[in-house]
């Protein structure tokens, strides 16, 4: 299981130390950009994403929770940007996937808890990552919605049957118990915020998820 700590829950006053504290054992840093429209919350914009990229050697896994991703994608292309994930529920998501791939980055597509896998089936062959939200996007610290496990199983089956290459990422409500459940269902990357950043021993927390 790959682990991507979500920087949303970190203490931004001590950003550099927070980033250093999760480097060992992590595979990516998950960076949530929120515009206050697609989700009710506002996080930070491209200037902070750029600084995060400079402060850690971890590749950035950028999750755009924004209504108009085409206005944002070009602004979050940095040397360490690995994935850019946009939502299937946002505006012009098909063009957005094309734009991410055109710019040479890996493309992810996220689905909210109420969106079915059927809706994104036609695009799966192009994707490097599918993100199944375990909670309603917008805030850390929520409980994992159990019926999302079926979607992970469905995505794992479609991947196997068709030889697709996407990672199956799960974000929201991840702890040791839900990480085991999503792994058994077929997830390959977990994103965790409060489970890692609300505790002193981050290395131990990351290892427990792996
Ligand atoms: O995208 C989001 C929330 O919308 C997440 O990345 C959260 O930051 C995860 O937080 P926890 O549920 O792990 O506390």
From TrEMBL:
Q: Where does substrate bind?
A: 6, 63, 138-141, 171-173, 193-194
Is the Membrane keyword given for this protein? no
Query: Where are the active-site residues found?
Result: 32 (proton acceptor), 171 (proton donor)
Which residues does a divalent metal cation bind? 30, 32, 63, 171
Recorded catalytic activity of this chain's protein: D-ribulose 5-phosphate = D-xylulose 5-phosphate
List, separated by semicolons, the cofactors it needs.
Zn(2+); a divalent metal cation; Mn(2+); Fe(2+)
Q: Which GO terms describe its cellular component?
A: cytoplasm
Any single GO BP term: pentose-phosphate shunt
Residues that span the membrane, as ranges: none
UniProt cofactor note: Binds 1 divalent metal cation per subunit.
Q: In which pathway does it act?
A: Carbohydrate degradation
Segment forming the signal sequence:
none
Q: What keywords does the record list, in alphabetical order? A: Carbohydrate metabolism, Cobalt, Isomerase, Manganese, Metal-binding, Zinc
Query: What is the E.C. number?
Result: 5.1.3.1
Gene Ontology MF annotations:
D-ribulose-phosphate 3-epimerase activity; metal ion binding
Recorded superkingdom: Bacteria
PROSITE patterns reported for this sequence: RIBUL_P_3_EPIMER_1
Group of enzyme by EC? isomerase
A Pfam family this chain is assigned to: Ribul_P_3_epim
Task: Describe the task this protein carries out.
Answer: Catalyzes the reversible epimerization of D-ribulose 5-phosphate to D-xylulose 5-phosphate.
Q: Which family does it belong to?
A: Belongs to the ribulose-phosphate 3-epimerase family.
What is the protein name stated in its UniProt record? Ribulose-phosphate 3-epimerase
UniProt organism field = Acholeplasma laidlawii
Q: Which gene encodes it?
A: rpe
């Amino acid at each position: 299981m790959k682990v991507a700590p979500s920087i949303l829950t970190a203490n931004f006053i001590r950003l550099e130390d927070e980033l250093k504290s999760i480097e060992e054992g992590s595979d990516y840093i998950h960076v949530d950009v929120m515009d206050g429209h697609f989700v009710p919350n506002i996080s930070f914009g491209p200037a902070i994403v750029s600084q995060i990229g400079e402060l850690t050697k971890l590749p950035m896994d950028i999750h755009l929770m924004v209504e108009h991703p085409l206005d944002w994608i070009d602004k979050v292309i940095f040397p360490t940007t690995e994935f850019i994930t946009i939502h299937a529920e946002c505006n012009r998501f098909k063009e957005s996937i094309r734009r991410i791939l055109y710019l040479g980055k890996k493309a992810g597509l996220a689905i909210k808890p109420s969106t079915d896998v059927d809706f994104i089936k036609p695009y799966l062959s192009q994707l490097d990552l599918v993100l199944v939200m375990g909670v309603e996007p917008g805030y850390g610290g929520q409980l994992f919605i159990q019926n999302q496990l079926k979607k992970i199983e469905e995505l794992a089956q479609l991947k196997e049957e068709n030889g697709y290459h996407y990672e199956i990422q799960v974000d929201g409500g991840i702890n040791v118990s839900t990480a085991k459940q999503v792994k058994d269902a077929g997830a390959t990357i977990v994103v965790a915020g409060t489970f890692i950043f609300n505790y002193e021993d981050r290395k131990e927390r990351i290892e427990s998820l792996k």
